[in-house]
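Batch manifest, entry 17 of 40.
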Amino acid sequence: MTGRGFIVRRGLRFLRGTSGSAMVEYAIVLPLFLLMVLGIVDFGRLGSDYVMVKKALERGVRIAAVRPALCPGVPQTHVRASVHPNVTPPKFGTSCSVGGICADPGAISCALDPATPAGAEIWNRIEAVMPSLVTAQDITVTYGFDENLGFLGGPYVPSVTLSLPEADFEFVTPLGDLATVFTGAADPNGAPNGTIAFPDMSVTLPGEDLNLGTNG
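Output type: structure tokens
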């Protein structure tokens, strides 16, 4: 009995002696485990949202390519570029791809405006799959000159780009707050702990002479 009692006493003493260290180890490991689990959940959502936004931009730019220009200042026709007085001006109907004969108005950009018919059509088609913090004004529409599109005197045919240059992704789990507690560092860009910058994305298609189109 003495031997058994000695062993039991020694065992209890050992357990009492290690209980504090077990709690310390648990306190260290738990935040790491939570970061890993919550990271899998939220970054899985981020990947899903990225794919959905890409598909939404593809759908939106397809509509924009066949509708009237959403931005003010987009030309309606291809006009002649400046030519030397001693050079015979190119004839109307000549492809813009021939020696820079069509004037380049430069890139013309604006925010998507859901108050316009075409803007409302685009936003109604893509709003449901956009991240919760994204609004129509976060989406940029850009019309760029492409000399391989259109002909002199004909309808202006630009390349049309729909992009999401600046947006925030919102965590549904307290991942950002937990990371701040664990690391002791706040976001250097001053963004709320529950959000991160969403990757920039854009989709471009050639315009289709910016005809009136329909909402069908």
